[in-house]
alpha-L-fucosidase (Sinomicrobium pectinilyticum), 690 residues
Amino acid sequence: MIRYLLFGTVLAVCMGCSRVAPPTAFGPVPSENQMRWQEMEYYAFVHFSLNTYTDQAWGYGNEDINLFNPTELDARQWARICKEAGMKGIIITAKHHSGFCLWPSEYTEYSVKNAPWKGGKGDVVRELAEACEEYGLKLGIYVSPWDRNHPDYGKPEYITYFRNQIKELLTDYGPIFEIWFDGANGGNGYYGGANENRKIDRTTYYDWQPTYKMIRELQPDIVIWNDGGDRADLRWVGTEGGFVGETNWSLLNGTGDVEWEMLHFGLETGDSWVPAEVNTSIRPEWFYHPIEDDKVKTVPQLMETYYNSIGRNGTLLLNFPIMPNGLIHENDEKAALEFAATVEASFAENLARNKHAIASDVRGKAKEFGADKALDNNKDTYWATDDSVTTASLTINFEKPTMVNRFLAQEYIRLGQRVKAFTVEALVDGNWKELAKGTTVGYKRFLRFPAVEATKVRFRITDSKSCPVISNIGIYNAPLSLNPPAIIRDQSGEITISTDDIGPYFYYTLDGSEPTPESKRYTGPVPTDGKVEVKAIAYDPSTHKSSPVTIGKFDICRKDWKIVGTDDHKAYAVLDGNTATTWRQSRDKKMPVDLVIDLGGLQNLNGFRYHPDQSMWEPGIITNYEFYVSDDNKKWKLADKGEFSNIKNNPVWQTRMFAPQKARFIKFRALKNTEGNDNIGYAEIDVVTD
Ligand code: FUL
C-alpha cells in the first residue's frame, strides 16, 4: 500500500501539457544484451566434432585426428538452411567434450590444423563466421569447459589454457552473440594418455568471474550461457526435450544453489534477470548418427516444441547434427523448412490487429497507454493500467463471428515481468466462454485451444505483481496438423498404432512402401513375426489431410524371450514395446547389476538397444555397461562395453553395435548410473541381429 502511495500514477507537467508518467520498472529487468537476444527468438546449434566420425555422443579425447575429413563441408549450406528456416544465428561446437578444436588453436595440437581436411589449413569456425556474415546471421560459440583430451584438465593450469582458447575464439571471428558453457563432466577421459577419472568441483574449479570479465571486455554485446557454474546471463531449462515450464519467470537469484525447478520454472522472487533458453535437437541425439535419419522430428513435433519454448517466454535453440561429409542431412533441412512454413502460416494474420478494444483500466486514462497500444504492431508501445491495479481485462471486438484457436500476449519486459495468472475468454453465440488459462506471460506467451467462432475475445489478467504492461496481443486461427502416429510392437509381436489426437484413421504398410489412404486401414492390433518395418500415417477423413509418416523398424520378435533369475512379472515391462513403462531392479542390489535374458534360441547378434528409465525422480539410468553373450547361461563372452554419454539430459534409445556373435543368452551389466547410486531401471531392451 505504501508503495502505491509513493509510486502511484504521477501526473507530470511537460511544456504546458499534462502527461501521465509511464510505469516504473518492477523488479529485475533485462540488460540490452539480454533484450537483443530475447528478440532473436529462434536460432541454431550445429554439433560437429571428431565424434561425428565415431558415432559417439561424447568423444573420449583420444579419437584419431585423421578421421576428420569433411570433404564436402559447406558452412554456407548450414547458413542458407538456417536463414531460410527463419533462424537468427548459429552456435557452433567449436570445442566439444573430446577437446578436439574446430579452429586451429595455437594452444593445442588436437585440432583441425593436424587433420587431413584441407591439408591442415582448414578452420570450420572461420568458414561459419564468413557464411553467417554473408547470410546476415549472428555467430555463437560452444566451447566445452570439460576437456577429455587435455593433460592438465583438473589442474589450475587448464584454466589458463581454457581462457586462452576463449580469447582466441572471441578475438578472431568477429562479433559473437552468445557463448555456451556446458556443465557436463562424466569424469573419465584420455587426459593426454592418463586414461583416468577426473572430477572437479564445478562451483569453484573454473573460477568463472575473471573469465566472464574477460569475455565481456572482448565482446561487450555478448550473452553468456552457463549451466555449470556461476550465474550467467541465460539459463538452461533442466531438460533437452524441448520445453520450459508452463510457468516461466525470467528470474533467478544471483547467488546460491539452483534447484531443477528453478531452471524449469524460473523463480518468481528471483533478484536477477536470467531468462530461459530451450535447447533441443532436431533428431533424438546431438551429434549425427545415420541410424537416426528417419527419426528427424516432424512438423507437429516441432510445432509442439515451438509452443513450449518461444510460446512460453523462452528462446528456441534447435540443433542440426552435421554429417561426416560436412553437410546438414536433407531430411533435417526439409523438416526445418516445413516447420518454418507452418509457423509462418499459423501467425500470418493477427486477427486482433487494429481491432476495436476496450480495457477495464487505462493508466491515468491517457491515450498513450490505451488498449489499442497492444494491437498496433509496435513493440515500443503498450497498454498499461494505474499502479494500484493488478487485475484487469482487455476486450477485443471482432464485430462478426471469427474463427480463432491461438492467443498470444507479450509483456513490455523492459519494465519487468509482472503477470502471474490470466484467462482467455470468448463471446460465442452471445455467451462468455473460457478458452484457456495461463500463468506467466513474459516476452511471448501463446495459448492453444480448440477453434471457436468468437465475436469478442477477452484477455483477463487475474493476478499480477504490479500493474500489467502489455505490448502486444495476437489472436490467430492456425491450421492444424495431425500428429504422426506412435507405433508399438509388444512382446507377442502385435503392432499397435495410436496418437493423442482424437478421431483420425490410420493407414499402414508392412512392405516398406509409403502409406496413403489407399493402404491398409488399421482397425486393431496387427500380429507380426520376425523383422518388420511398419510405416503408418494418421488421416483426417473430414479434411482429407494426412500426418507425416512414422517408421517403426523392429528386429526379431521377442515372444520367446524370458527374463532369467526373477519372478517379478513387472520385469516384462522391458519387452512390452512401450518406452513409458519401466522395470526397476530391486533396490537391494548393489552394482554391478545384471539383467539376463533367454532369447529362446540361438540368434546372430551384432548389437543391442537400451531405452532408459523415463522417471523424472530417482531414475535408474545406466551410464556405464558391459554386454555379454552366452550359449548356455554359464560361459559368458564380453561382446561390448562402454558408456551412454549424454543419457541423463537426453534419455533416448541407445544403440550399440558389436562384432557378430551367435548366442542364446544376453547379459546387460550395469556398472554405474547417472546418480552415483545403485538404482537401475530399464524401459526397453532389444537386440540387433544381422
Ligand atoms: C549437453 C552435452 O553434454 C551434449 O553433448 C550436447 O552438447 C548438449 C547441447 O549439451 O549437455
